[in-house]
């Protein structure tokens, strides 16, 4: 079985696993209801009080791929204030779920630091939160403070009703992003010419960005050549060919109203693939071997899709030991 066929099969399984079922939200819990539940959840975290949110007694709570208890562990214990106005909601009444990204201060031994928080909430038929999953990462010091105030306007803009796409099509397009990355072929995803990707509050791909090397060296201490920075070209440069697999792909929330789809995934890098072909921005080809310790990268992505193309990507990724479990099983 080819790598593409294998990953497509995994993706199909993930879509089925996150479809409507016995845990679907009650019909009356529409978009506004789900956003209200998400806001109550964030307020409860800021207050360090699980009773302020409609949590099920049997809630499954995972943060940074580690099983925890609400109110006692993770950001529930370390929050140093309320979540900021930087919020992106992806409500999905059909699946009884909502995803969101926000910023929140986190207490550390040296003081409070701003952190990005990605959240997946699953709601049952009684509008209780039965599953909560977090990824949280401190904001890099190099991040532009102006970008922390609010999401990019185009990302959260409402799509005119006549232009809204079916949920299944939005999920399929969003899922193609992982195929393009896994196969090092930007043509596998319909990136728009204006596509921009922001990862951990840093712009890492987009129109007009000058070709640039990445912060890494090979076995000889050499830096990689500059590669294209547009979404399609960067994927096709094979700069990410060192990724072994992208596992646990789940498109758990899709919102046609905003044209948004939110997914979680788990990147695995053994760093044992050896030298890989890489295509520089000038078209030259080199054999490149990424040199770093093995690691996993659980990640959350929100995709803005309009006119059948991916225009914006907002992502959070964290570094965890290679071979880490997902924390849910």
Describe the structure.
The chain has 329 residues and is of the alpha+beta class. It folds into two domains: 3-18 and 153-317, Nuclear Transport Factor 2, Chain: A (Roll); 31-148, Roll (Nuclear Transport Factor 2, Chain: A), CATH 3.10.450. It is built from six helices and 14 strands. It has helices spanning 3-17, 31-47, 75-78, 153-156, 167-183, 231-236, and strands at 55-63, 66-67, 87-92, 97-108, 111-123, 129-138, 191-199, 202-205, 245-255, 260-269, 276-279, 285-288, 295-306, 309-317. Strands 2-1-6-5-4-3 form a six-stranded mixed sheet, covered by helices on one side. It has a six-stranded mixed sheet with strand order 8-7-14-13-10-9. A hairpin with a 2-residue loop joins strand 7 and strand 8. It starts with a helix and ends in a 12-residue tail after the last strand.
Strand and helix map with partners:
Layout: H1 3-17, H2 31-47, E1 55-63, E2 66-67, H3 75-78, E3 87-92, E4 97-108, E5 111-123, E6 129-138, H4 153-156, H5 167-183, E7 191-199, E8 202-205, H6 231-236, E9 245-255, E10 260-269, E11 276-279, E12 285-288, E13 295-306, E14 309-317
Parallel strand pairs: 1-6, 7-14
Antiparallel strand pairs: 1-2, 3-4, 4-5, 5-6, 7-8, 9-10, 10-13, 11-12, 13-14
Helix pairs in contact: 1-5
Overall pLDDT, averaged?
A: 91
Percent range of helical residues: 10-25%
In the sheet with the most strands, the strands line up as 2-1-6-5-4-3
Question: Distance between termini?
Answer: 26 Å
Radius of gyration: 20 Å
| CATH fold description of the largest domain | Nuclear Transport Factor 2, Chain: A
Strand percent estimate: 25-35%
């Amino acid at each position: 079985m080819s790598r593409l066929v294998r990953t497509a099969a995994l993706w199909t399984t993930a879509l089925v696993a996150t479809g409507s079922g016995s845990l679907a939200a009650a019909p009356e819990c529409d978009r506004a209801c789900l956003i209200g539940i998400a806001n109550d959840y964030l307020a409860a975290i800021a207050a360090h009080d699980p009773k302020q949110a409609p949590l099920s007694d049997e809630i499954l709570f995972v943060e940074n791929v580690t099983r925890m208890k609400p109110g006692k562990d993770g950001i529930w214990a370390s929050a140093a204030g309320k979540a900021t106005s930087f919020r992106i909601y992806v409500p999905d009444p059909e699946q009884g779920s909502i995803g969101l990204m926000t910023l929140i201060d986190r207490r550390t031994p040296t003081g409070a630091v701003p952190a990005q928080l990605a959240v997946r909430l699953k709601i049952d038929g009684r509008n209780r939160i039965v599953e909560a999953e977090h990824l949280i990462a401190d904001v890099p010091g190099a991040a532009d403070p102006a970008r922390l105030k609010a999401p990019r306007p185009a990302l959260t803009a409402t799509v005119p009703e006549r232009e809204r796409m079916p949920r299944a099509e939005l999920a399929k397009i969003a899922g193609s992003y992982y195929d393009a990355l896994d196969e090092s072929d930007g043509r596998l995803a319909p990136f728009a010419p204006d596509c921009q990707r922001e990862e951990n509050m840093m712009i890492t791909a987009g129109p007009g960005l000058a070709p640039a090397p990445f912060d890494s060296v090979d076995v000889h201490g050499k830096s990689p050549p500059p590669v294209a920075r547009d979404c399609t070209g960067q994927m096709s440069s094979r700069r990410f060919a060192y990724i072994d697999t992208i596992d646990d792909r789940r498109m758990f929330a899709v919102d046609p109203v905003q044209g948004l789809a939110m997914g979680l995934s788990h990147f695995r890098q053994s760093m044992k693939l050896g030298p890989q072909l890489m295509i520089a921005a000038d078209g030259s080809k080199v054999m490149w071997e990424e040199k770093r310790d093995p690691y996993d990268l659980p990640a959350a992505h929100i995709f803005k899709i309009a006119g059948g193309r991916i225009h914006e990507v907002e992502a959070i990724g964290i570094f965890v030991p290679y071979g880490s479990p997902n924390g849910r099983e």
